[in-house]
Amino acid sequence: MSDYQIEVSDRIATVTLNRPEKKNALTIPQLEAMAPEVAALQDRDDVRVLVLTGNGDSFTSGADLVANAPLIQEGPSGQKRSLDAFHALLRAVWNFEGPTLAAIPGVAVGFGFDLALACDLRVAAQSSRYSQSFSKIALVPDGGSSLTLPMLVGAAKAFELMYMAPLFGADEALRLGIVGEVVPDGELGARTAEIAARLAAGPPLAYRLAKRNLRRGMGMTMDEALDNEHEAQLQCLASSDVMVGIMAWANKTTPEFTGA
Q1: pTM above 0.85?
Q2: For the CA atoms of the chain, what is the radius of gyration?
Q3: Going from the N-terminus, what domains does the chain have, and what CATH number goes with each?
Q4: Is residue 230 annotated as a catalytic residue, yes or no?
């Protein structure tokens, strides 16, 4: 079974992350296969709306640290390949010109949190949970959230979520404006379909132009944000702290970071 699925129906493309036994954690080969397919949806006349979701009880827990570790340990070339793979998917979602919707059934942490933030709209199940968890393993957020998160929650709260990396639930995400709507777990699919259908029936040219104008008003572009994050993440990946953090995460111990 594929670790992702892309289905097109009624002018809606639905991308489903499909590693439920791993909380839909993302691997580099998976990203490298998926990103071009998601990007290609932009050129299809039968697609007006892009929906991202996850199979099972997770949106995505972000990077699969175990599966991706050998590549990261290769050094600069492997680390660059890893970042390029994640950024390719992020750009494919961000650059989709029509409306985008994240349907969040469960955990959306690390890059999963950032991927949800890259969508225009977010609807969440009551059991969903969120964390900007990068600092726990001595990394920086690298999915464009240096742009998207402060726009949603303000700079002060963005610093708090980045530094402290709390795990919080759907009601707090709604209060902060991170998600636009919270529904009972069993109603997420139906509500997602309802919102997507309404968007697909809307005026595609007006939507595209409105989205472009909103983006222009943001100041920094996504490409600039990702370039900044790429440079910072490579520095973090070259440090000793990142392996300390990953080993502590794997062993469920408390890391002792040195800054080296």
Answers
A1: yes
A2: 18
A3: 4-185 (3.90.226.10)
A4: no
